[in-house]
Every structure is written in C-alpha cells, then in structure tokens.
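Q: I have two molecules that I believe assemble together. Could you output structure tokens for the complex as a whole instead of separate predictions?
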Amino acid sequence: MNFDSSVPVLLIASSLLPGLIIFTLREEQRGLRTTLNLMGASVKLLLVAVMLWGVHHGHAYETVIPFLPGFDLTFRADSLPMLFVTLSAVLWLLTTIYAIGYLEGSANRRRFFGFFSLCVSSTVGIAMAGDLFTLLVFYEMLTLTTYPLVVHRGTKQALRAGRTYLVYTLGGSVLLLLGIAWLYALTGDLCFKEAGRLGDLPGEYAPTLRLIFAMLVLGFGVKAALVPLHGWLPQAMVAPAPVSALLHAVAVVKAGAFGIVRVVSDVFGIEFANRLGVLTPLAVAASVTIIYGSLRALAQDDLKRRLAFSTVSQVSYIALGVALGTPLATIGGLVHLVHQGLMKITLFFCAGNLAERLHVHRISEMDGVGRKMPWTMGAFTLGAFGMIGVPPMAGFVSKWYLATGALQAGQPWVIGVLAASGLLNAAYFLPSVYRAWFRPPSGEVAERAPAGGVEITWWLLLPPLTTAALALGAGLLAASDFSPLAWAKVITGREFGL
Amino acid sequence: MNTPHPGLWAVLLVALPLALALAAYVAGRRIRPILVWIAPLAMAALVTGLIHSLIHQGPFRYEVGGWAPPLGITWKVDGLAAAMLAITASVMGAVCVYAPGYFAGSFKTAGAGKTELFWPLAYLLWASLNAFFLSADVFNLYVTLELMTLGSVGMIVLAGTAESLAAALRYLMLGLMASLLYLMGVALIYASYGSLDMVALGGQLRGDPLTWAAASLMIVGLLIKTALFPMHFWLPPAHAGAPAPVSALLSALVVKASFYLTLRLWFDVFPAVARPSAAQFLGVLGACAILWGAIQAFRADRLKTLIAYSTVAQLGYLFLLFPLAAAPAVAKKAWLGAILLALSHALAKAAMFLAAGRIQQLAGDDRLDRLTGIGQRAPLALSAMALAGVSLMGLPPSGGFAGKWMLLVAGVQSGQWWWALVLVAGGLLTAGYLFRFWAIAIAASDHPSQRVPVNWRMELPPFALGVAAVLIAFLATHAVELLEIGAAFPIGGTGEVAP
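A: Yes, here they are, computed for all two components at once.
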C-alpha cells in the first residue's frame, strides 16, 4: 500500500482512533481526552491539506478494501469528495473546540466525544465513498453514531427526539437499501462516475429507473430534511449546541444533501436524469421545502427551532442546484454545501453562547444582548446577513449562481422562489438582529451579563468568530483560486465535460 | 516433516471436552483454572489446527477408530463444519471465562454446590456439539442431537426456580418428541436405502412418497428443535429462565445446530425431494417468525425475555434462505448470506445474554422498568449490547449486515421482492425493540447511583463477542473462502457475484 492509497484510510482513522481511545478513558481524564481530540482534528486537517494539494495537481486518492464477495469498500478522493471532506474537517476542529468549552463540567463527556469522533469518521467515509454500497455503509454508521448524541442529555424530551430521529432515518435507510440492491440487480455495478453510467441502458428501463431514483432521493432526503421528511430536525434541537452544529453543518443534513448530489450527478448523471424527467419534480420538491421551511421558521420564537427550520429551507438550495441541471445552477448548489455549513454553524454557536451566558433561548428575550455580548452578536449578524443573501456574504454568491443557473435552464419561476426565500429569511432573521442591537437589555440580561473582561471563554468565542470570518471570506474572495466557488466550478466542469 | 492426520484434530475436539466433563464432575473446584482458562485456549488451538489442515489438505472423511461404516462412525469435515466448530469454540470460550463470576455473584445463598454441575454439563454440551458438527451420518447426528438436548435441560434447571423447572420439562418433552420424529424419518430412510451416510444417500435418493415422508418427518423434527414459528413457544421461557451463561449457549449454539442439520439435509441429501412449494412454505414460516418474534420482543417486560424473543425472530431470517436458494442463479449467494447471518447471530446473541446477566446482577432484576439509567453503572456491558445490537439489526458494518445484504441482493436479483421486503422490515422491527431497551438504559436516572467498578471477567467476554459480531464483517471474504471448501453444491449456483 503506497502513500496515495493509504491516505483515505488515514483520514478516516484520524478521527476513528481518537474516538475509540476516548471510550477507554475515564471521565476525569480531561487533559488526555482534549489532547486526543485536538490532535485527531489537527492531523485530519493536515491530511486534508495534503490531499487538496494533490487533487489540485491532478492526483486521485483511491483505496479498495475487500469486504463482501462482489462488494468492496472503495474510496476515491477527487474534487467533489474533497469539497465535503474539507468542510467537515475544518468544522470538526472548530466544533470540538467549542464542545470542550461548552460541556465543561457536565456528565458523560467521554461518551459524547467518542461518538462525536465516530460521527466525523462516518462523514468522511460518506464523502470519499467511491460507490453507492460504500456510501450506504457509512451513511448507516452515521445514523447509529448520531443517536447517542441526540439523546445525550437523557431527558424525556431528548429521548423522544431520539426516537423520532430513528424512525425517520431508519425509514429512509430501508428505501436506500432496496433502491441500491435493485440498482445492483439491474446494472451489476454501483461505482460513481462523472456524468453517470446509466445512460446506456435500453429505453424500456426508464420507468424502473425513475422509481429507483425516487427511492434513492427520498432515502437521502430524510437526512437532507426534504419536506415532508424533515420532522426530525426541529425536534433534534433539544440536543446540546455542539450537536446542533454537527447535525446542521458538519455532518448529518450535509450527508443527505451530498447523497442527493451523488445520485443525481454520479449515478444517473445530470443530463441523463434530465432526459428521464426526474429533475423537475426534484426541483419542485426542493422549492416547496425552501418556502415551507422559511414560513415555519417565521412562526418560531425559540431561537434554535427557528434556526432548525431555517436549515430545512437552506439545505434544499443544494438539491435545487443540481436539480436545475445546468452548470451554473450546479455550481450554486455545490458551493452552498460549504456556504450554508459555515453560516449555519456560526448561528448555532452564537445561539449556544447566548443560552450559556445569558440564558436567552427565545427571540423575544434577545433585547439588547448585542450590547452585552458584542463579539458573539457580531458573528451572529454576519451569519444572518449571509443567510439572507446580502452581498458580499457567501450566501449571496450561492444565490447568484442559482438564479443565473435557473435562467440558463429556462425555469424563471425559480427566481421567484429565491426572491421569496430571501425576503422570508430577512423577515425571520432581521427582528432578532434588531432586538439584539437596538433595544435596551432587559433586567435579567443586564444582571447576567459579564462585568468586564471577555464576554465568554475563548473556547466558545473563537469558533463562531472563525466561521463568521470564513463565511465573509468565502464571499469576498469568491473569485480567488482557492475559494469554495472556484472548487465548485472545477467539479461542475468535470461533470459536464466542459 | 510429518503432518498429523487431520482426523487427529477432530478426535481431540470431541475427546478433550468429554474428558474435561468427567474431570469436572470428579474433581470440581480443584481444576477450576484448567476449566476456565486452559481448556478454551486448548480448544481454540485444536480448531485452528483443524482449519489449517482443511485449508491446506482439503475436506476429508475420517472413520473413528478405523471402523468402516455401517458399524463405525464416519466423520466428514468441510468448510461449513469447521466454521460451526470455530463459532462454538468462540462462544464456549467466552462463557467459560464469564461463568465463575456469574455463579459466584448470583447464587451465594441458593446451594452453591449445584452450580458446580454447570461445568460437567457445559463440557458435555461442547463435546456433543463438536461431534454433531463432525458427523456425516444421519443416525450419529440423532445421537449427538439427543445428547445436546439432555445437556441443555440439565443446565436450564440450574437456575433453581420453579419457572425454570417447568420450562426445562417442557423443553425436554418437546425435544424428545422432535427427536422421535427425526428418528422415525431416519428409520424409513434406512429401511428403503440401507444406508445412513449423508453423502451416499445424497446421490441415490428417489422422489417417491416414502422418501418424501421420511424427509418431512426429519425436517419437522428439526424445525421444532430450531423453534421455527409456530413451534417456537418452548423457546422464550427456556432461554429467558436459564442462568445467563446457559441462555447464551442455548440461543447462540444449540438452536443453530438443528438449523445446521436442516441446511445439510436440504442441500446435500434431499435436493431431489425438496419441492419449491415446501421452500416457499418455510420462507413464510420464517417471515411469520420475524414478525411475531419482534412483536413479542417489543412487548416483553424483562430484558432476557426480550432477547429470547429476538432469537425467535432472528431464526426466522435463516429460513428465508430456502425460498431464495430455490432460484439457481442466486442460490449460492443466499446460502453464504444465511450462514454468515447464523454465525454472526451466534456471536451477537451470546454477547447479549452474557451482558444481560451482568446487568441483571447489578440491578438485582432484569425487569425493564427497573433498568433506567443502568448504562451508567455497567458501561462496558451496555457497549457489548450495543455492538451486538448493531449486528442483529443488520446495520453496517457488522456480520449481520453482511449476511442480510447478501440475502437482500439474492432476493432482488431473483425477482423475489417480497422476501427482500421482509428482510428490511425485519431490520426495522429489530431496531424498534432494541432501541426501546437502549432508551431505558441511557436515560438519566432519577437517583444517580455511584459508579460500580468494571467486573472485567464478566464484562469483557460479552464485549469481545460483540466486537467479534461486528468485525466478522471484515473477515467475510475469508469466511466465504472457508465455507466454499468442500461445499456440496448440487443446485447449480455458480456463485458468480460480480460481473
């Protein structure tokens, strides 16, 4: 095994091993646990940097591990996987730092960090999977390893959220299992290939392929929170803030969206899927999700619930992008995978800080918090503006490409969806920003506010500031060679053979 | 260098546990370290030796004591037999390490002398299981099957409660009835063909009514012993009522033995008589078992009852093999899938029962409503349960997933959609009852109890079995190579799985 083929395995091991070791530690071994966590996250980032350099220079990192007769575990890290891997690796490091600060002194940290690391290993496996079978294996592992995090607090409410999460995700798994087995029975091959490999099948398979497409997209749609499969996500916000960050930005909904991207672009191929006529229904479903999520978000007073419905809405931009079937829209969808992650994780970090420091959980309690926690609320504001799509934030770049892509596809109605969603985003984010900065703080907030010094520990402040800066940078420097946008353009170019 | 005759390994695999059973009965406590530590290691070495010679010298037959049939006993060793011997050694070894702690902790008051009987009975069971997997003629199989039943009944009674006594008696009655049915079939076969050897019979069986009747009697007898729905009712009280190490042996190994024989008869001896309609019927019973077992497991109010009903359901999966294998193109895939599933179920179920025993000891009871937050006090035992559960649910990456995936692909490829649906629905039901327990175990307890130090000798064996139930997926390619050695495969499947 040479270096190139061992890299994907190392990348998975860099979080898997620390996770497994953490399980064997005692609860009080805080120093060792923290060291392991940060070391794993740093090693992963280093490996990602090496791989980015390699992929940029035309390398592809491939590994095949024999598993079952006829079904190997294959990993292939080229441009599309690296987009997701980079996002996960960067956000994992930041979320780990945040979680160390956030869970200070609470129970069961060993279990938490162990499963947290396993989650990230599964996500990296999903990102690098070279075929649908491998993707399925890691996708299911992600389901299993997230459950203990969702129910982490062990309260009745948390257990109920965990049950809902399982019912939805395992239901999705059934569709995936059957769909993938059916596809295998039909074609005998599950490998991903740019522009797909189903185009050569005779025409009479079209109805079957449409059905398989629906099964796969619905299967992945559960984690991507496609309406009406989104019900688990708002409930899961009872979990601690770092878990919300993981669910909404690092791993879970992203894994669903990534699965949809894979199915559309590398199993069916965008052009073939377009000929099958399955992309327009997907675009409609994504649009409905975008509007519905925004409307529901508007009605929430609980900050984390509002953010959760906002995720429902925003993640569907990714599916919308690939479903429109044009290069520009695909760029918009792919780049939103990264942009949404950066912006949403910022918002969840900030919501966690408000709850932790000022016990503020509702929008109606947010009066004047900006004066008490200016750095946190500064990051929050940047994230919110990004979500609305204000230039020059990253969200604007995604929407711009989606809109021009929709015109290219001859589907101008999508512009209406995007505009409506932008307005709704503004309607549900601006009030909280306004309250935070322009209303006087309530008595309770003023009482709990820190009396000088830093507003909250650096463990909790640094991550949101970093992600907010990254979200800003991704927008400002979108034209540079190393922006997510440039990377998305490379991937799209390969998919469309441009 | 002179390599020993491969038959030597086989003889020792039966002789050593028999000798140990005698020694344990006579010497009891004084040789405890030998029973607990050295014997499992020695047996593991013997199995390794057997597998080694199997790989290098191919499958072989062995006439015990040099007596040729029909007088003597003939053994036959192929990949499937070796895999069963290996899994028996793994589970038995783990139970041997675990049992002293369990009996010391649970039965301080109730006549400690009686629990000493566990050892001779366990080694007797080990010897009869090994002899069973080695046997190549239908009568010897009957004898060893009977020995197994007697050993099992003896061990169930060790629990010493009135319920376990009733369960054991019911088990004994049904076991005897099942053996009688089987024996009647054997007698019919011997009367019309004059042979008891499975290989010899396989080539010459006719599809006449007499043979059909004999086959039916033998298979029905075995189905009762395998507790296939609706003949499962004896299993839950017996497996749930027995002491935990005994439950593990019964659920992991003993029911697998009769399934193993069903498999052998169906594919090696009776292919001429095995009708597609019979295969479909077995599949339907299997599907009912999956559903009914899961529903009962979900309603169970005790942890061990839950696990016992889970065995009923999981055994149902194995019977989906018969209809799936009726399609020649996917027969081999289904066969391998079912055996992988059986092997991983043995590991996972043993892990669950052993862990449940530890949990029962800590909580003083295994009623589910008393186990709130038990995960805090027995984290390692709960991890063992979780790992085993992943395999039972058939989620990746685990042995259960490997087996179910191959069955699923076989179902879809051969166009037998309904079996594929049963498979995935069964997985969901399993998740339903297992997560019901886990939610209780990891819930925040109202009155947090102080940490209990880990009892390594009771928590490590189930944990190791749980890990094995997961990791066996990564050995699946090797397991398949082993299983293919000497596999009689008369049903035409080429086993081509990848284009």
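A: One point stands out. Chain A has one domain: 3-496.
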